[in-house]
From TrEMBL:
Lineage: Eukaryota, Metazoa, Ecdysozoa, Arthropoda, Hexapoda
Stored Pfam families: OAF_C, OAF_N
Residue span, Out at first protein BRICHOS-like domain: 20-167
UniProt record similarity statement: Belongs to the OAF family.
Domain (Out at first C-terminal): residue spans on this chain: 204-267
Protein name per the record: Out at first protein
Species this protein is from: Parnassius mnemosyne (clouded apollo)
Amino acid sequence: MQNYMNIIVFYAIIQPINLQLLINVKNQGGDVMQENITANVSEDTVILDFLRLDGVYVSQLVDFTNEVEAMKVVIPAEEELGQSGHQTLCFLTHAAQADFIAPDAMAKLRQKNPGTVRVAEEDKGWRQTTATAWAGRATRLLSPAAARHCATARDRVYLRAADLTRWAPRPGMEQSTYSSEVTPFPAHALSPDAVDGKPAVGPCVAENDTAKECICHLEVCVNWYPCGLKYCKGKPQGGLSYRCGIKTCHRCYRYHYYVRRRDACLSYT
């Protein structure tokens, strides 16, 4: 774990950044943890990362220019379950820009009291994503920043094929190029019924055979993030509206994705 944390620190040092904030936040269980927020105005990206109390490392990138959100999750092995090493996953979704303030606004944030423990003002609930394909080379085409962010996940980068039509093609590309670069999950993994004689794929939590395919399920909660700007009226602007702070939110994510073997699902729940 120490070597892994060194990698995280090195990764943060070499990135070209415009703002970096270390925030103390309280999760829903009452525990205090730290989040690191990095805003890069030149790349138009924001990265929020933290280490969960169970040792899982979470790093969320939002690429505003290309409207791509990349959630990277590094899961340490549980030796008592016969696992070894760690596993890196990445989930690409279409970014809802209104849900995360832009890098230029983020870069203006300052902490008056760095030691303060923050609690989100609004609970955004759950966002569920059922992946339908391995992203493959489409990751680089969709967002160079996301491709770098997810590089260590290798072939464990997932997306919903339906999202491909929401991303505008890059200059000189056709919309269909994205679809041609992804690899869909097997048809019977996407259907609740048998397909071509193959039974539907069940959840990993209900599968006892480690060699059998199943649908893995992973949950991630971001306990505090700037989700909007606050505007006030008053003397500074002659009665006109002006920026006077940020709104903060809490959101949880639930991801479902296909694995060829249950032992490739380090999170069985």
